[in-house]
Amino acid sequence: MSGDHQARPRLSVLTEPTPFFNPRGYTGNLNRALPLRLRTWIRRAGARTIGGHAAVTRSLLQGLDALGCRHNYNPVMQRCIAEHCLVLSNEEALRQAILLKRAGKIKRLVAGPNVFVLPSDMDALIASPEVDLCLVPSEWVKQVYLTETPALAGRIAIWAAGVDIAAWTAPPPRPPASAPVVLLYVKSGMDEDELMRVHNLLVDHGASVIRMDYGQYNASQFRQLLARADLCVFVSASESQGIALQEAWSCDRPTWVFNPGYWTAPDGHRHPASSAPYLSAACGQAFNELGALAILLKRWENGELQYAPRHWVCRHMTDQASAERLTSLLFD
């Protein structure tokens, strides 16, 4: 269920503040938040629009619907905010929720995983004592948060969004062909010379290579390219969760992921990290240099590597499974 209900919701999910309450004052609300909310009302015309990180918000709301968990999303009025409140994103929404917690209107306040890059941002707002639990999308991000802000110890948990397995599907991979198609997904972590060496290595092993650059495609185009591919090679310096990977797995396409193994914070400090926090043997493998990729290609040619990524996703990372994990954190 979604929207405002006659039955009091168990949970409110926020990605923006209500326009009728703002820690910076009523006048500021009218000047800033209210016009934005009015435009949103007009755009959605009775349908729910998604704010924050769209893939994360969509997954949670659809998962809660599938569970039958009573909830509302960005309720218009302050009085409609439930006693259990999750701020998925938006600093201003979190500030508002903190004030409501102080006033006793919210009993349990959870924040994350898309509020800040680091917990020290905005004077460590997410570590405020009013925040009962901070959500992060993976283990390596949790360790970064605890290193940066030890005050979060004991009130930080891992929660990852799911994937819509009905939307992210593709025809079965073709039988082995003389020229397998490899989708080369490029985000970060390699310069163009390095990428050309990856491309040439794939071609040398008989592959037809399709390159797709992060930010230069929409979901429909991604699905179309996945349908053409037999295998994906992902190049990304790090991923807090790796939603594009999950979408590829849901389409039953295995992924080989370039994984340097570290993330550089804005202050220049290096933290241990992952480019595929949820990569399993069923979904693919990681490599950190060209020689390791060459070995994977040889094993692939010899028929040594077998994967079942969609089966893994359907067991572990559906929208409903993700929402179940979240409700256990919120209510258990």
Task: Annotate the secondary structure layout.
Blueprint: E1 11-14, H1 26-44, H2 54-67, E2 71-73, E3 84-89, H3 91-102, E4 108-114, H4 121-124, E5 133-136, H5 139-148, E6 156-158, E7 181-186, H6 192-204, E8 208-213, H7 219-228, E9 231-235, H8 243-250, E10 255-258, E11 262-264, E12 270-272, E13 284-287, H9 290-301, H10 309-316, H11 319-331
Parallel strand pairs: 1-2, 1-3, 3-4, 4-5, 5-6, 7-8, 7-9, 9-10, 10-13
Antiparallel strand pairs: 11-12
Helix pairs in contact: 2-11, 6-9, 8-10
Count helical runs. Answer: 11
Q: Order of helices and strands, N to C?
A: EHHEEHEHEHEEHEHEHEEEEHHH
How large is the radius of gyration? Answer: 22 Å
Cα distance, first to last residue? 20 Å
* Average pLDDT for all residues: 90
Describe this structure in words.
The chain is α/β, with parallel strands linked by helices and 332 residues long. It has eleven helices and 13 strands. The protein has helices spanning 26-44, 54-67, 91-102, 121-124, 139-148, 192-204, 219-228, 243-250, 290-301, 309-316, 319-331; strands at residues 11-14, 71-73, 84-89, 108-114, 133-136, 156-158, 181-186, 208-213, 231-235, 255-258, 262-264, 270-272, 284-287.
Nutshell version of this structure?
The chain is built from 11 helices and 13 strands. Helix 2 crosses helix 11 and helix 6 packs parallel to helix 9.
